[in-house]
Amino acid sequence: MSGARFGFLPVFLLAAALPPIARGQEPRLVGRVPDAARTQVDAILVAARARGLPIEPLVDRALEGATKGAPPAALVAAVTRLRDELVVVRDAFGATASTAELTAGTSALRAGATARDLVRLRSLRSRRPLTVAAAVMADLVAAGVPADTAVGAVLALAPDADDADYIAFRRNVHRDIVLGASPAVALAVRIRLATETADPSSPNSSGSGGSRKRKP
Q1: Cβ(134)–Cβ(104) below 8 Å
Q2: Per-residue DSSP letters for 67-115?
Q3: 85 φ, ψ to 5°?
Q4: Each residue's pLDDT tens digit, 153-206
Q5: Which residues contact 28 (CB under 8 A, 6 or more apart)?
Q6: How far is CA 169 from the centre of its chain?
């Protein structure tokens, strides 16, 4: 009986010898993010959590920077910038916005959308999810569409398009670009077709009377 008790002693002593993780310290950063940056990132995470912001995107950004070998100052600056963007998007999308919506919103901001654009997107889409719509803004800019044109197209579709419509719209614009159209022309053609389909007075609109859902 006593031998069994003493059998656990080395394990207990080993556990006691391990350095405890300090309060407020993010365990996923320990040993992966340089100490010179980790203390500051931990403080950002604590403050972000207190404000109701999701910390997963911030942790991911810190780990990404560490993996790429970013200097501590640059790593901290990247996490700080993302924290500030999350605040802007949360204010635009509302306190109930999901982490996916907030993350997509930060991508839209970096692509050239403004806080006012995101507020407008929230208003036009009422209580519908915003993740895909915001992501399409960023994807169109990445494909070469001017930022203001991409944002305008996403907002023009916002009242009627569902997520599948946005995905089809993005796919069609990308396909037109691959076939040789300039990004701006490809988007202009697709948004015109979508608008004509939605407008019952348009000769290209099917049927008559009532509203029509825009098709990409």
Answers
A1: yes
A2: HTT--HHHHHHHHHHHHHHHHHHHHHH-TT--HHHHHHHHHHHHHT--H
A3: -65, -40
A4: 999 999 999 999 999 999 999 999 999 999 999 999 999 988 776 555 544 444
A5: 59, 63
A6: 19
Angle at 205 between CA 199 and CA 206, to 5 degrees: 130
Tokens for 3, please give them.
């031998």
| Predicted TM-score (pTM) above 0.85 | no
Q: In whole angstroms, give the CA distance from residue 32 to residue 30.
A: 5
User: Which tens digits make up the pLDDT trace of 87-123?
Assistant: 999 999 999 999 999 999 999 999 999 999 999 999 9
Q: Is the separation of the CB atoms in 204 and 197 below 8 Å?
A: yes
What is the identity of the amino acid at 159? P
**49 neighbors 82 (Cβ within 8 angstroms):** no
- Residue 93 sits at the vertex; the CA angle it makes with 46 and 166, to the nearest 5 degrees, is 125
DSSP string, 142-184: HTT--HHHHHHHHHHHTTT--HHHHHHHHHHHHHHHHTT--HH
**CA trace torsion 30, 54, 79, 170 (10° rounding):** 120
Q: Kindly state the tokens that stand for 12.
A: 């207990």
Report the length, in residues, of the chain.
216
